[in-house]
Amino acid sequence: MTPAPSPTATTEDPKRLAEFEARIARGETIEPKDWMPEKYRRQLVRMMSQHAHSELVGMLPEANWITRAPSLRRKMSLMAKVQDEAGHGLYIYCGTETLGVDRHDLTNQLLAGTAKYSSIFNYPTLTWADIGAVGWLVDGAAIVNQTMLAKASYGPYARAMVRICKEENFHKRQGFEIMSILSAGTPEQHAMAQDALDRWWWPSLMMFGPHDKDSPNSDELLRWGIKKKSNDELRQRFVNLTVGQAKAINLTIPDPGMKFNEATKNWEFSDINWDDFWRVVKGDGPCNRERLAARRSAHANGEWVRAAAEAHAQKHARKESAA
Ligand code: 3HC
Predict the structure, then answer these.
(1) 109, 158, 80: which is closest to 2 by C-alpha?
(2) Is residue 296 part of a domain?
(3) 3-state helix vs strand vs coil in the chain, percent to 5
(4) What is the total count of domains within the chain?
(5) pLDDT tens, position by position, 311-322
(6) Which residue, 81, 94, 211, 322, is most buried by CB atoms nearer than 10 A?
(7) 11-43 burial by CB neighbour count: b if 16+ within 10 A, else e?
(8) Residues 11-25: what's their mean pLDDT?
(9) Shortest-distance Cα residue to atom 28 of ligand 1
(10) Is residue 265 included in any domain, yes or no?
């Protein structure tokens, strides 16, 4: 069971807290066996569990197209990507275990519908172009975020991001290739790519979280070096990277108010519909119920595998102790 937070969690030993803050200020990496404030631990568990849940739920929209991929090459590439996401989830769940969390607790929270995961995965993948848009935009946004997290102050999380970002780059490239081929195809194919960009653009910007002024966690995460950049900084970096890519494949960003600021060199974009964002985060998105049902069904159908693995482990342990 995940240990309950220490009773003095809110009032840390001032001397130890000062030493910890000094370590962060020196850019040191915090390892699992190091002393850390309970709030630092809890923030990491919150972020990392949501990240791991996002990886697992994120498999669902894409898995929807594995049997429908237009060629064997596309099917293989998509299967590899979906398998990667499962591995990312397992990797990050392992990271939460270095913080004393029992991953079964996290799984139960997800299945109970009480755990957050990235709202982007509550949208449907309606056409094959969506698979391109997800790889290009969703994994592209994830790379911007995770490249920053690869410098996080908590060692196991940062190291996990280094490995995951390498695979995300393949995910983004295969998605962008799908979009560029469709966009250069027949008028119907171009229209399909543009439709996917229209539907996935704004939810991708929401992946970076609310504006900094509305982000209750960012100050602490930035102070403790878990985040190195704010939500708005990362969002702006993603927009600046992506506008040129859309133009390069003759697609239009669905934001008529977008304009380039010569002074800041930023692409300024229109307001995000935060009511939409919170509606989906709170469970009322197009696919929230479907995603949870799929996770619950996969978990139930996997019971026999867990039982077999447990029986094997116990048999192996008995052999070991008898030896
Ligand atoms: N979807 C759902 N909830 C979100 C959200 C989103 N896109 N953005 C923010 N929220 C939630 C936060 O979890 C927080 O709620 P909580 O306090 O109950 O946890 C609340 O909204 C306020 O947001 P904050 O800005 O205060 O939260 P953070 O400081 O944690 O910033 C974050 C949000 C940028 C998502 C940050 O948590 C983060 O970087 N997490 C790690 C990376 C991650 O989880 N990415 C998700 C996508 S994974 C992915 O894309 C897989 C790839 O392979 C495709």
Answers:
(1) 109
(2) no
(3) 65, 0, 30
(4) 1
(5) 999 999 999 998
(6) 81
(7) ebeeeebeebeebbeeeebbeeeeebbeebbeb
(8) 93
(9) 217
(10) yes
Task: Tell me, in angstroms, the distance from the centre of ligand 1 to residue 72's CA.
Answer: 34
Residue 322 lies in a domain: no
Does residue 128 lie in a domain region?
yes
Q: How far is the CA of 110 from the centre of ligand 1 (A)?
A: 15
What is the signed CA dihedral for 25, 26, 30, 36, rounded to 10 degrees?
-40
Residue 150's domain spans which residues? 7-286
Higher pLDDT, 165 or 6: 165
Ligand 1 pocket test, candidate residues 57, 117, 145, 164, most atoms within 8 A of CB? 145
Assess whether pLDDT exceeds 70 at residue 8: no
Residues in contact with ligand 1 by the CB-under-6-Å rule are 46-47, 50-51, 54-55, 58, 85, 88, 116, 118-119, 138-139, 142, 145, 168, 206-210, 215-218, 221, 231, 281
pLDDT on residue 11: 73
**Chain-wide mean pLDDT for the chain?**
95
Mean pLDDT of 161-175: 95
Nearest CA to ligand 1 atom 18: 116
The pLDDT assigned to 68 comes to: 96
Distance 53 CA to ligand 1 centre (A): 11
* Ligand 1 centroid from CA 264, angstroms: 27
